[in-house]
Amino acid sequence: MEQKRKNSKKRTAILHALSSTREHPTAEMLYAALKPEIPELSLGTVYRNLSVLVEDGLVSRVAHVAGQERYDAHTEPHAHFVCNNCGRVIDVDFPEMIKPLFNQISDNTGCVAESYVLSFNGVCNVCKNKLNN
Fold first, then answer.
1. pLDDT for 91-116, tens place per residue?
2. Rounded distance, CA 131 to CA 133, Å?
3. What is the pTM of this model?
4. Do 60 and 96 fall within a single domain?
5. What sign for the dihedral angle of Cα 22, 24, 29, 30?
6. Which residue segment(s) compose the domain that 114 sits in?
């Protein structure tokens, strides 16, 4: 029998903070953002709740930048671009290209692809413009 998780105000606040941004914050970034409104919040609580949210499929781990995991509440399939200069993580969505790739995988291997994790690395537009000026 599947056990239902108890609702947690802190977990709800973490999910809301993640859902309210297009950034892909670290646990430390979420902790810093939420600590003023939840003074009793600990960094360990943020990490534990992020693990629960990932396990429940409400949040994804999307990239590892400078030794820190980045998180995303936008869990529909999409790729990411990671800036090698500033560490910014940007959503990249191109479903029209992915569906044929899934079909090709099936045709070539007989396997059924159900999901993907795809990241591009390079220099983001903001850093590129700074470097050109």
1. 998 778 888 888 899 899 999 888 88
2. 6
3. 0.82
4. no
5. positive
6. 77-133
